[in-house]
Design brief:
274 residues, three-stranded antiparallel beta sheet, 7 strands, four-stranded antiparallel beta sheet, alpha+beta
Length: 274
């Protein structure tokens, strides 16, 4: 299936990559710059404005004037926290250990507020939790802090109890995680990422050092790779190797993204700051 890069998702990826700390004094990105930077990715100006409006309504972008009085948008505190939490997933690849343990989320939502039950389920799933039992969700223990931030930001924490612990049986843990997560579906996401972006890495790797490629090309290839990759560390909880199939593609896709990040991110910044 072809990758889908929506205008809204690309804007979030742009702010995540280049919208924090590049401009002096955290100056907001001018609307004209957003339009220029998204045009390179195939997004037209009306789509940029429409997507920015949606992000503003969600409280993620705040309208601000730049130093020279131009209209622009800055990140809200919630958006900054969201991106900071995301950085730990997107850019940090630690080797998980079974001894690290698990975090359990147990929730109860009154029938009168059942819409929040759906919101809780979908949000825990997007954080990488698997379903251990009805109303009981499980994830590697390292996801605790981000889970707490997310539940508090969405005002859902009063419905949830969080626990840390280890799996003591009775099924073998490898068999258990195959029930808790849809491992074939997660593997397919990694394979799709590799199919789209491993050839890009090969092309850049083959580029001569005295002809390193344009900053615009680096920016474009990096933003598309980041926009694809940043979903994966949420779909994939990154489980210890002994719990996964032998041919698991997760480590290889992480290596491809890390190599693209190292090679293209700073080069792409030259285009952003031009």
């Amino acid at each position: 299936m072809a990758e889908q890069h929506t205008p809204r998702s690309l804007i979030v990826s742009l702010y995540g990559a280049y919208g924090r700390g590049l401009a002096p004094g955290e100056e907001p990105l001018p609307v004209a710059e957003l339009i220029r930077l998204l045009a390179v990715l195939g997004v037209d100006a009306p789509s940029v404005r429409s997507s920015v409006s949606r992000l503003k309504r969600r409280g993620l972008l705040l309208p601000r004037r730049t130093a020279d009085g131009a209209a622009g948008y800055a990140l809200s505190d919630d958006a900054r926290q969201l991106l900071d939490d995301g950085d730990r997933r997107i850019y940090t690849r630690t080797e998980p250990k079974l001894s690290d343990g698990w975090v359990l989320a147990v929730f109860t939502v009154p029938e009168a507020e059942r819409h929040k039950r759906h919101l809780l389920r979908s949000r825990l799933g997007r954080l990488g939790f698997g379903t251990a039992a009805p109303g009981v969700w499980i994830a590697p223990a390292r996801l605790y802090e981000e889970t707490r931030h997310t539940l508090e930001r969405l005002e859902l924490s009063s419905y949830v109890d969080l626990f840390r612990g280890e799996h003591l049986g009775y099924a073998a843990t490898a068999e258990a995680v195959a029930r808790w997560w849809d491992l074939p579906a997660i593997a397919k996401l990694h394979e799709e990422f590799l199919a789209a972006h491993e050839p890009v890495l090969r092309t850049w790797t083959a580029t001569r050092t005295d002809s390193p490629g344009s900053a615009e090309d680096a920016y474009r290839d990096y933003l598309f790779a980041l926009d694809s990759w940043r979903r994966l560390p949420y779909a994939d909880p990154v489980l210890p190797a002994e719990l996964l199939p032998q041919d698991w593609p997760g480590a290889r896709s992480a290596e491809v993204f890390a190599a693209l990040h190292e090679r293209l991110r700073d080069r792409g910044a030259e285009f952003v700051q031009a």
